[in-house]
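Quick one, T. Sequence first:
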Amino acid sequence: MIATMARLIKKAAKVRVSRDAALELSIVLEDYAVRVAREALKLTEHRGAKTLSKEDIKAAVSAISK
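Structure tokens:
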């Protein structure tokens, strides 16, 4: 997981990445993903569906970004 985060940072900038930086990015992204998932679930339930859809995720990201 930490190696994946380091690769993501390196895609943004060609820099060396500390283990702590990669771990912190992992924590931040996990928190964001949980917020998106919770918002998407609200949207899924609101439309009376049982399956969370790609559109729910997109709408949740848009709602959270406001």
